[in-house]
Structure formats: C-alpha cells, structure tokens
Amino acid sequence: MPTPEPARAQPSSTPPAGGPPRLSTRSVHALRAVGALLVVLAHLTGPTGFEGKVFTEGPRVWDEVRTLVTGIGVDVFFTLSGFFMVLTAAGPRLGRSPVRRTLWRRLVKVLPLYWLATTGVLAITLVAPGAVNGSQEHPPNVLASYLLLPQEGLPLLLVGWTLTHIVVFYGVFCLGLLTGTTRGLWAVLGAWSGFVATLYVVLHVVPEGTGGPVLQFLGNPLNLEFVLGAAVAHGLLAGLRRGTAALTAGVLLLVTLLTLRVLHVPGTTSSEYRLLGVTTAVCLVLHGVVALEQTRRWSTPRALMAVATPSYSLYLVHVPLIGALAVVASRLHPPTAPAARVAVVLAALVLCVLAAQLVHRYVERPLAAAFEGTCWSLPRDWLAGFRRPVAVDVRNPATEAVAAQRAGG
Fold first, then answer.
1. Over the chain, what is the mean pLDDT?
2. Treating both helix axes as pointing N-terminal to C-terminal, what angle do 223-237 and 72-90 enclose, rounded to 10 degrees?
3. Taking the alpha carbons of 269, 270, 271, 275 in that order, is the dihedral positive or negative?
C-alpha cells in the first residue's frame, strides 16, 4: 500500500537548524515490507486461498499461519500511512508546497495503478464470470470499484476496500493541514476520530445492517488506525523517544495476542481486539524501532528493503496473480506431502514479489510520474481553496525554548 516517502535523513536526535526535526525511517520501510508479506501470506493460505485451491484434499499445513497473519498486514499499512503523512507534513517540503499538491501527490500514488489493476480484473471477469470474487455473497459494483466508494460486498480488486479508507484519511488529513497549525490539524483528526467512534457505538446499538455500506464504512474502527499512526509520528517528532521500553512492550503484547488467537480464544477476531490489542502493539513496535534507529545503527535486511520499495505494486497485483498461479499449479498436480505444500506456497510468494518488482519499475513509477506532472495544469478555480502554502511545525515548544536559551548564552 502506498505511503508518502519523507526526505532521507541521517539518524539524529536534534532537529536541523531552521526546520522541523527529521527522522531516519529505514526501519519503518522494513516494517512496511513485513506488512506486505503478511497480506500476501493471508491470501496464499486458507480454504479459499492459493493452498486451498491447489491442494483440495488433506490437511492444510498453513491454516495456523493464516490465523496469525490475517488482518495484521492491513493494520500495519494503515498505521504506517498515518505515520508517514505526519512526517511528510512536518518536512520542509510542505512549507513550499500548497496543500493541493500534497493531496495530489498522495492520490497519484494510489489511483492510477489501482485503476489499471481493476481494469485487468474486470477483463478477466468478462471473459470468465465468477473467476474473481466468485465466493463473495454480493457481486462487485463496477462503478463503485473504480471510484473507491463503499459497497455491500468487495470491489472488483479484492484489496480495493482498504484504499477507500486510505483516500478518505488523506482527505481528512489535508483538511486539517488547511488550518495552518498543528493544533488545528489535531483538532480535525480528533473530531474525525470522535465521529468514527460515536458512529461505531451507534451502529452496534441499532439493528444490524442499518445505515447501509456508507455508514458502516464511516463507523469502521479501522479508520482510527491512521490517527494512531499519526500520533506515533507526532510524539517522536516532539521528542518522545522511549525506544527500548516501547519495543519491548509492543513485542510482548503482540506475542500474547497472537498466542490467544492461535488458541482460538473468543473475541480475538473482533474489530475491538484488532484496534485495542493488535494496533496498540503495532504502534508500540513502530515507536520503538524508530526511536532506537535515531541513536543506533540499524542493519536493515536488504531483502526487506527490496520488498518495501514495490510494496504497493505487490499489494495490488498479488491477488489476481495468486489466482492465475493456483490454476497453473493445480494442473501440475504437485506432491501433497506437508513439506511440498510449504515449498509450493513459498514459491508462489517469491513469484509474487518478483512480479511486483517488474510492475513497480515499468508500470507504477512511470504512471505516478506522468500523473504527478499534471498537477499544476489542473483547472485553478476549483483548486483555489488549496493554493495557500501551509507549514505545520510539530516541534515541542518546551524543547525549542530550552534550545533557544542555550543558544543565547
């Protein structure tokens, strides 16, 4: 999934002169790679996934893995999206760039490749009806799929529902940026969080299905994960650096929660469990690794960095590619021994990553560059409200006062 890319910075605990503080984020990109791999594994495993389609008989050796990874990859991506939006807003680039360009840069990273992938899935659906989302209760709405509108079922491209949440958060965040102050930004994010939480409670009181897909979407607690990720970035930029404690607490909490999930404890698949448990653990780990990265040299595995770069391409193309690989693999009749099943699933994972590398290099990057270059040629009348450059400074006022006092004498 797409995340804004902040300017690179060397590990440092002090902000550069004349600008907001900068953070080194190689470890965050490694987490993004982990999230992408978890999403792919979730779709490779299970009765309706790659393993279930290829090996129709016998026990599925990846079922417990699916139990662990289902949903966590999306939680990681949503949290990182909020995290990187704050880092982008706090960077010096925003001070010279109108909010409309900030929003446009985010949209061109999401929409062109998504539309292209959706068109490919639509073509498959027209040729072979039922081949895509054939197991879903509600058939996908084509127009809603392209426009990323909430719908009863899943969109044409299975993962498109998550992009609807991302685009809405981008809009809310940029609305907060228009206030021109950190306090205004967080007032907007706070109001959005309160609205989501209130609607979530109301929808649990009224009869199930009330409000339709739009209200169900707006009241989804997953919308709060972006704000939590933004809060982590804000705390780090403001000087809160409890790396060891946060990382230790996050790992212990995550291990505990995953253990409960493996034991099939009731409630471990609920949205409350994800938000209050898994997302909290992800935020603690995120805070911990970034805080420690500022003072220590991290040796981030190059393999993870190689996956992080094309992570959005991987996120979009892996679902239709898995379907194609399942058709091919089932006709080859691979051995059904547990070791062979593990090897076949891992081989499919590697092929997905390699395909994503090609899509990122030859499709995603050229598309984004082409669309981003059209930003300033857009009609200016309806963008007039986005002209004013905005610089949001998230530095801690107390820290700045101490620094100014030291500088003066």
1. 81
2. 50
3. negative
Count other C-beta atoms under 10 Å from residue 178's C-beta: 16
Burial letters for 343-355: b for 16+ Cβ neighbours within 10 Å, e otherwise?
ebbeebbeebbeb
What is the number of other CB atoms lying within 10 angstroms of the CB of residue 288?
23
Asked if 261 contacts 67 with a C-beta cutoff of 8 angstroms, the reply is yes
Rounded Cα distance between 76 and 223, Å, is 13
100 CB-near residues (< 8 Å, 6+ apart): 375, 383, 386, 387
* Tokens standing for residue 70: 């289902």
For residue 193 the two structure tokens come to 């969080």
Angle separating helix axes 160-177 and 72-90, nearest 10 degrees: 20
Summarize pLDDT for 218-270 with one digit per residue, the tens.
999 999 999 999 999 999 988 888 888 999 999 999 999 888 888 888 877 77
Q: How far apart are CA 290 and CA 210, in angstroms?
A: 41
Q: What is the per-residue pLDDT across 65-80, written as a single tens digit (0 to 9) for each? A: 777 788 899 999 999 9
Which DSSP string corresponds to 340-354?
A: HHHHHHHHHHHHHHH
Of 79-83, 154-158, 309-313, 391-395, least confident by mean pLDDT is 391-395
Long-range contacts of 174-181 (CB under 8 A, 24+ apart): 174/99, 174/102, 174/103, 174/386, 177/89, 177/94, 177/99, 177/102, 177/390, 177/392, 178/99, 178/385, 178/386, 178/388, 178/390, 180/388, 180/390, 180/391, 180/392, 181/392
- pLDDT tens digit string along 254-268? 999 888 888 888 877
Distance, in Å, from the CA atom of 274 to the CA atom of 207, rounded to the nearest integer, reads: 23
> Which tokens in the block code for residue 78?
């949503």
pLDDT at 293 > cutoff 50: yes
- What is the model's pLDDT at position 197? 94
